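<instruction>
Derive C-alpha coordinates from the sequence

<record> Sequence and C-alpha coordinates follow
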Amino acid sequence: MAKYEMMFIARTDVPEEEIDKLNAQMESVVSGAGGKTEKIDKMGRRRLAYRVKKQREGIYILFTFEGNGDTVREFERRLKVTDQVIKFLTVRVDERKKAAAEAKAAAKQQAVAAASEARAGQEPAS
Protein backbone atom coordinates (compact mmCIF):
# COMPACT_ATOMS: atom_id res chain seq x y z
CA MET A 1 0.00 0.00 0.00
CA ALA A 2 1.14 3.49 -0.79
CA LYS A 3 1.08 6.49 1.49
CA TYR A 4 -1.06 9.49 0.51
CA GLU A 5 -1.70 12.98 1.79
CA MET A 6 -5.07 14.50 1.02
CA MET A 7 -5.70 18.16 1.74
CA PHE A 8 -9.22 19.45 1.48
CA ILE A 9 -10.77 22.81 2.21
CA ALA A 10 -14.20 23.12 3.81
CA ARG A 11 -16.45 26.17 3.77
CA THR A 12 -16.13 28.46 6.78
CA ASP A 13 -19.87 28.56 7.49
CA VAL A 14 -19.83 24.85 8.37
CA PRO A 15 -20.03 24.25 12.15
CA GLU A 16 -17.20 22.44 13.96
CA GLU A 17 -19.45 19.43 14.65
CA GLU A 18 -20.07 19.02 10.91
CA ILE A 19 -16.31 19.13 10.24
CA ASP A 20 -15.74 16.40 12.85
CA LYS A 21 -18.56 14.35 11.34
CA LEU A 22 -17.03 14.78 7.86
CA ASN A 23 -13.62 13.67 9.19
CA ALA A 24 -15.15 10.58 10.79
CA GLN A 25 -17.00 9.79 7.57
CA MET A 26 -13.83 10.08 5.49
CA GLU A 27 -11.90 8.00 7.99
CA SER A 28 -14.52 5.26 7.64
CA VAL A 29 -14.20 5.49 3.83
CA VAL A 30 -10.47 4.81 4.12
CA SER A 31 -10.87 1.91 6.56
CA GLY A 32 -13.78 0.49 4.56
CA ALA A 33 -11.64 0.38 1.42
CA GLY A 34 -8.90 -1.52 3.25
CA GLY A 35 -6.69 1.48 4.04
CA LYS A 36 -5.32 2.87 7.27
CA THR A 37 -5.63 6.47 8.49
CA GLU A 38 -2.37 7.67 10.00
CA LYS A 39 -3.15 11.26 10.92
CA ILE A 40 -5.91 13.86 10.63
CA ASP A 41 -4.62 17.40 11.04
CA LYS A 42 -7.12 20.24 11.25
CA MET A 43 -5.05 23.23 10.21
CA GLY A 44 -7.78 25.75 10.90
CA ARG A 45 -9.21 28.72 9.07
CA ARG A 46 -7.00 30.37 6.44
CA ARG A 47 -7.38 32.92 3.71
CA LEU A 48 -7.45 31.49 0.19
CA ALA A 49 -5.12 32.82 -2.51
CA TYR A 50 -8.12 33.31 -4.80
CA ARG A 51 -11.88 32.85 -4.60
CA VAL A 52 -13.11 29.28 -4.78
CA LYS A 53 -16.86 28.79 -5.14
CA LYS A 54 -17.41 32.38 -3.92
CA GLN A 55 -15.38 31.76 -0.76
CA ARG A 56 -12.40 33.87 0.37
CA GLU A 57 -11.52 31.71 3.40
CA GLY A 58 -11.61 28.03 4.16
CA ILE A 59 -10.97 25.45 6.86
CA TYR A 60 -7.98 23.31 5.90
CA ILE A 61 -7.86 19.61 6.82
CA LEU A 62 -4.93 17.29 6.05
CA PHE A 63 -5.48 13.52 5.95
CA THR A 64 -2.47 11.19 5.89
CA PHE A 65 -3.37 7.61 5.06
CA GLU A 66 -2.18 4.37 3.51
CA GLY A 67 -4.19 2.75 0.78
CA ASN A 68 -4.39 1.82 -2.87
CA GLY A 69 -5.83 3.53 -5.93
CA ASP A 70 -9.36 2.36 -5.16
CA THR A 71 -9.17 3.96 -1.73
CA VAL A 72 -8.13 7.29 -3.25
CA ARG A 73 -10.82 7.14 -5.94
CA GLU A 74 -13.56 6.48 -3.39
CA PHE A 75 -12.24 9.23 -1.09
CA GLU A 76 -12.18 11.74 -3.95
CA ARG A 77 -15.63 10.65 -5.17
CA ARG A 78 -17.09 11.30 -1.73
CA LEU A 79 -15.41 14.69 -1.49
CA LYS A 80 -16.76 15.72 -4.90
CA VAL A 81 -20.37 15.15 -3.83
CA THR A 82 -19.94 16.72 -0.37
CA ASP A 83 -21.27 20.28 -0.35
CA GLN A 84 -19.09 21.35 2.58
CA VAL A 85 -15.85 20.75 0.65
CA ILE A 86 -14.84 23.44 -1.83
CA LYS A 87 -11.46 22.08 -2.98
CA PHE A 88 -9.20 19.06 -2.48
CA LEU A 89 -5.84 17.71 -3.58
CA THR A 90 -4.32 14.24 -3.25
CA VAL A 91 -0.56 13.62 -3.30
CA ARG A 92 1.24 10.31 -3.12
CA VAL A 93 4.13 10.51 -0.65
CA ASP A 94 7.33 8.99 -1.97
CA GLU A 95 8.93 7.32 1.05
CA ARG A 96 12.37 7.07 -0.56
CA LYS A 97 12.53 10.80 -1.30
CA LYS A 98 11.29 11.65 2.17
CA ALA A 99 13.91 9.37 3.78
CA ALA A 100 16.63 10.84 1.55
CA ALA A 101 15.63 14.40 2.49
CA GLU A 102 15.68 13.52 6.20
CA ALA A 103 19.12 11.88 5.83
CA LYS A 104 20.42 14.93 3.97
CA ALA A 105 19.10 17.26 6.68
CA ALA A 106 20.69 15.09 9.40
CA ALA A 107 24.04 15.06 7.56
CA LYS A 108 23.93 18.85 7.21
CA GLN A 109 23.14 19.23 10.90
CA GLN A 110 26.08 16.97 11.81
CA ALA A 111 28.40 18.99 9.57
CA VAL A 112 27.32 22.23 11.24
CA ALA A 113 27.84 20.68 14.69
CA ALA A 114 31.29 19.42 13.71
CA ALA A 115 32.28 22.83 12.35
CA SER A 116 31.16 24.59 15.51
CA GLU A 117 33.10 22.09 17.64
CA ALA A 118 36.20 22.67 15.50
CA ARG A 119 35.88 26.42 15.98
CA ALA A 120 35.39 25.98 19.72
CA GLY A 121 38.49 23.77 19.88
CA GLN A 122 40.67 26.43 18.23
CA GLU A 123 41.31 29.06 20.84
CA PRO A 124 42.91 32.30 19.75
CA ALA A 125 46.69 32.47 20.30
CA SER A 126 47.77 34.98 22.93
